[in-house]
Structures are given as structure tokens and as C-alpha cells.
Design a protein that fits this description.
The chain has 2 domains: 5-74, no CATH class; 86-282, Rossmann fold (3-Layer(aba) Sandwich). Helices cover 44% and strands 18% of the residues. It is an alpha/beta fold. The strands form 2 sheets. A 7-stranded mixed β-sheet has the order 6-2-1-7-8-10-9. Strands 3-5-4 form a 3-stranded antiparallel β-sheet.
Length: 287
Amino acid sequence: MLYSVAQGARMDNELGEIVQIAASVYGSDISKYDDMFLNQVVEKRFAFANVANISEYVQYVSNNPDEAGALLQSLNITHTDFFRNPLTFAHLEQWIFPSILEGKPEASELRIWSAGCSSGQEPYSIAMLVENIHTRKSRSLRYRIIATDISGSALIQASKGEYREDEIQRIRVKDLRDFFIKTGDTYTVSDRLKQHVGFSTYDLLDTRYSCPQESIFGNFDLVVCSNMLFYYKPNHQQYIVRKLIDSMDRFGYLVTGEAERHIVENFNELYQVAPPSPIYKKRRGVR
């Protein structure tokens, strides 16, 4: 749908009204999202609702709980892929994980947090890397991946671990054979991986908990939070990164998305270890 110049000029004011409606009528704070992202989502819902103008859409949302629910659901970022950034995963497999394991006592547990895991492709990708390293090193290895997201529907899908053929194209043939069960056109993650990955609901902006409750005390060797930060306003980005840093072990690593490097580089506690991959490590002396 094309918008008139007048509609475009009114968009910011109307967006403010939608933010207020979401908070007062539906109890949801959507002011945390980046304005450009919020605009894009509202424009898509406005076009889908087939109303005459943005002012009518404001009233439509106010009086239509189903549309409000659809709008709020659209704000949940669920796009993801297996091995989404191949270079980053190559660095993790070839350098970062071996470095972490070299410094850990053999009986200790490798602790990983996949923050904003969506439908599970990211934590399962990480689990495949760890399993392959485990096989090559022939050493005893305990590891646990805490995978969290704010979307309950995405977490249900992640727990099932069922993916279409078009969703597994980046997975190596050997890994498909070792870690998936094919039934028709569906590929299901095997228990060999599932036993190491726990999915739970967690809001990164929740001020009550500094890390997922399932992790008890944080101290993660690796925290992965990719392609999510840029959907939020700067002050919320800073809060999330601070929480991620505080959850890391003193020798821990943080992985973000390629487009989020400028956000993380504002934190002096971290330094980039594998340019151009967005992989960061805590500086010595930082707890």
C-alpha cells in the first residue's frame, strides 16, 4: 500500500498513540523498540488491516484485541538460520572452543547461553560444533546450553527440533547424518543434541533477574546474542549488553551479529578477538 505525504508526516504522532494504547489497554511496553523497526511493523499491519489511513488503524488497534495481538506478535524477532554467520561459526569451531576447553579442567562443565534463540537453530548449531570437537579431542566433556527467548511459540518449535528441508541447507552432510533423523521432508534433531540444550522463557530487559534462572549463577564461558540488539533503542541495547557481560565467566566470550559491532565496541571491558567476526572476550582483570 502506498502512503500519502500527509500520512507519512503524521506517522510519528500516530506511532506514539499506538505505543500508549499498547501500554494502557494491553499492558505491553513497545516503546523499547527502535523507531524504524516499530514503524516498519506498524506499516505492514496497517496494510494488512486494509483500513483507509493510519488514524483509522490507531482506532482499529484500540478496539480490536486480535489485531493488537497480531501487532505485538509481529514485534517478536524470530528470523534465524542454522550457522547463520558461517565465518563466526568457523572461528568458534577452529579457535574459540578449543581455546576455552584448553583452559578448563577436564571434569568441569562448558556453559553456554544462547540469548534470543528463537526457534532453536542457533543453539543446535552450537551443539553440533561442540559435539564435533568432543569427538576429535576424545576427551570427557560435559556441556550445557541454556537457550532463551521471549516468544513462547518459538520456544515450543525449538523444543520439538523439527525443521523443513529448506531450513537445513547450511548444515554439513555429515552433521545431518550424525545429528538429525529424517522422516519424509522433516529433519528432527536427535536426542544426542537435545539432551544438552534447555529452552526457557527469558526477557533480556527483565530487571528482576541478571541471568536465566535455569543457569542459577551465570558464569557462562560463551554468550551468543546475535542479530537482536539493533531492534531496540540505544538505552535498552546498553542495558542488554551490560547484562550479557555480567553473566560471563571472567575468561568468557560474547558473540553478537555483524551489524551490532558498533554497539558492543562501546564497552571497554571487551575486545574483539577474531576480526571481522563479532566475537569479543573480557579483558584481563574484569570480573
